[in-house]
Q: What sequence folds into this?
């Protein structure tokens, strides 16, 4: 594949090859070594705490510290809060009455509220970080605008870290401060990365996941008839949608061979997660949505040492929110023809810009 800057690299679309590259010890996630698959921009080292673009041992150090804050116990503790937040958004939908934009009233607020609760970020700051995140994730933003948005959210979270150091609370940032191993700059970088990733991706999945279900009435009816299918349904939606549609990208540190293909040192490799998750060699009839499908091994959260650290939180949010939405509004349906729905293709995560839905108020549960 020829990259926009002229670099001749590779595109991986097969499931087994994707996992092989992502788990290979001789490929690097360092941003300064990568060529971008879309757009142009400087190849710069990751800032302090941005461990998604670091290799071992730096990545290992950050990952170890932060994984301790994403324990099964902590996710269990957070589930009632997710249920409470979801119920609040459903009540707001009922008060507004149909039709409504599901993205604005449901899909975006829930993960935003949850990640604010987890990190200890005041929710009244949401408009600011949502605006900055949109610019950071945009494929059309100029380098100048992206830097300005990154600087704004970094400055804001650095101030928050300093306040947490003076007055700690029961949240992830305070927990990392208590550990005593990270500087304020590192803590700020971690917070920026988790805040940006923690609401943008799940919001996209909630919107697209609802659209996928409404567009497949046979599967939707099956889930409504048997709510115990929700865990498998979430995994199939993750596989089917794979909303991280550009990357991840890696660079070979030395000459390697993957599935019979030689990748030379310095060559960049981009993995298409949507293509890998629809590899017919791994998932029969991959373009069909089947909520009872065996989805083990899907790569919606990546694979290897950089696999999404917040994946269990995302699963909790998706399971709770989708289950509650379908239970509360059993007649939920699209309020516009599907062809009138605008898809968001100008961002590193795929989604819908708006999702107008309606329901029969007298049929609310």
A:
């Amino acid at each position: 594949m020829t990259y926009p800057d002229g670099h001749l690299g590779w595109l991986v679309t097969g499931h087994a090859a994707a996992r092989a590259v992502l788990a290979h010890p001789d490929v690097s996630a360092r941003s300064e070594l990568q060529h971008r698959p879309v757009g142009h921009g400087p190849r710069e080292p990751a800032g302090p705490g941005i461990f998604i673009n670091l290799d071992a041992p730096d990545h290992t150090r950050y990952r170890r510290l932060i994984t301790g804050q994403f324990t099964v116990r902590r996710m269990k503790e957070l589930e009632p809060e997710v249920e409470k937040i979801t119920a609040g958004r459903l009540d707001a939908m009922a008060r507004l009455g149909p039709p409504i934009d599901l993205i604005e009233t449901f899909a975006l607020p829930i993960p935003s509220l949850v990640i604010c609760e987890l990190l200890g970020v005041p929710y009244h700051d949401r408009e600011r970080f949502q605006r900055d995140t949109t610019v950071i994730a945009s494929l059309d933003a100029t380098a100048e605008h992206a830097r300005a948005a990154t600087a704004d959210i970094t400055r804001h979270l650095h101030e928050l870290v300093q306040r947490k150091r003076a007055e700690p609370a029961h949240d992830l940032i305070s927990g990392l401060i208590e550990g005593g191993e990270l500087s304020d700059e590192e803590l700020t970088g971690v917070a920026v990365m988790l805040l940006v990733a923690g609401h943008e991706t799940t919001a996209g999945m909630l919107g697209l996941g609802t659209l996928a279900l409404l567009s497949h009435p046979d599967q939707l009816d099956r889930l409504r008839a048997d709510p115990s299918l929700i865990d498998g349904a979430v995994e199939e939606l993750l596989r089917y949608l794979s909303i991280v549609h550009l990357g991840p990208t890696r660079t070979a540190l030395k000459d390697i061979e993957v599935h019979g293909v030689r990748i030379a040192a310095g060559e960049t490799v981009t993995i298409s997660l949507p293509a890998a998750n629809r590899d017919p060699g791994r998932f029969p009839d991959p373009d069909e949505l089947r909520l009872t499908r065996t989805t083990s091994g899907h790569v919606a959260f990546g694979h290897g040492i950089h696999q999404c650290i917040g994946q269990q939180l995302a699963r909790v949010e998706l399971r709770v929110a989708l289950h509650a939405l379908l239970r509360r509004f059993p007649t939920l349906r699209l309020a516009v023809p599907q062809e009138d729905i605008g898809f968001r293709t100008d961002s590193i995560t795929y989604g819908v810009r708006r999702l107008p839905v309606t329901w029969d108020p007298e049929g609310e549960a």
About this structure: Residues 58-244+280-363 form a domain with the Cytochrome p450 fold (CATH 1.10.630.10).
